[in-house]
Automatic annotation (TrEMBL):
Protein name according to UniProt: Dynein heavy chain coiled coil stalk domain-containing protein
MF terms (GO), sorted A to Z: dynein intermediate chain binding; dynein light intermediate chain binding
GO biological process, one term: microtubule-based movement
Residue runs in coiled coils: 107-172
Signal sequence, start to end: none
Record-linked Pfam families: MT (PF12777)
Cellular-component GO terms for this entry: dynein complex
Keywords, alphabetical: Coiled coil
Length: 204
């Protein structure tokens, strides 16, 4: 029984035989002996592709063996300790298949959710990059505004200084305009004295 289950799990076909009543049946004893004679038998069980067990195989295993009360490691141990381990392997594969059928859709949903999350994160990062560009541009404008304000302040200070200088210059010009007439009279007097200097010297 255990070896038949192993043959079904590994996809090994049975031999068609006829019983005493002339009825045909599936016999796994011959194929089982050939399977046990394979030096890589245990290695094949270790490397068994448990993630891709055909559904029809698991259906046969569940209907014919898992529901069978004799297909129990504790019962089989009384007959063969080697078959006990093989029975545990079949049961473990059945449990794994049941669990993977439940877990696989959840893993698919998880992968889908992670994909959506990654897409949203990509959009978020794109928006963050856009925000950073806007922030950098705003900072540049703020820096330019601050520079222009400083330039404006410097110009206002220069205007105030120039206004003070202009006011002082106007006062100085106004002060000097009063001296203009006196200087003009003095210049005329000096010119006359210069014209008469030779005569004045000669008289002297």
């Amino acid at each position: 029984m255990v070896l038949e289950a192993i043959c079904i799990m590994r996809g090994i076909k049975s031999e068609r035989k006829t019983d005493q009543n002339g009825k045909q049946f599936e016999d796994f004893w011959g194929p089982s002996m050939k399977m046990l004679g394979d030096l890589k038998f245990l290695e094949g069980l270790k490397e068994y592709d448990k993630d891709n067990i055909p559904p029809q195989v698991m259906k046969r295993i569940r209907e014919k063996f898992i529901k069978n009360p004799d297909f129990d490691p504790a019962v089989i141990r009384n007959v063969s300790t080697a078959c006990e381990g093989l029975c545990k392997w079949v049961k473990a594969m059945e449990v794994y298949d049941r669990v993977i059928r439940i877990v696989e859709p959840k893993k698919a949903k998880l992968n889908e959710a992670e994909g959506e999350l990654q897409a949203q994160m990509d959009k978020l990062n794109e928006k963050r990059a856009q925000l950073q560009r806007v922030t950098d541009k705003l900072q540049a404008l703020n820096d330019e505004y601050a520079a222009m304000n400083k330039k404006k302040k410097d110009l206002e200070e220069n205007i105030a200084l120039c206004s003070q200088k202009l006011e002082r210059a106007e006062k100085l010009i106004d002060g000097l305009s009063g001296e203009k007439q006196r200087w003009s009279v003095g210049a005329t007097t000096l010119s006359d004295k210069l014209h008469n200097i030779f005569g004045d010297v000669l008289i002297s």
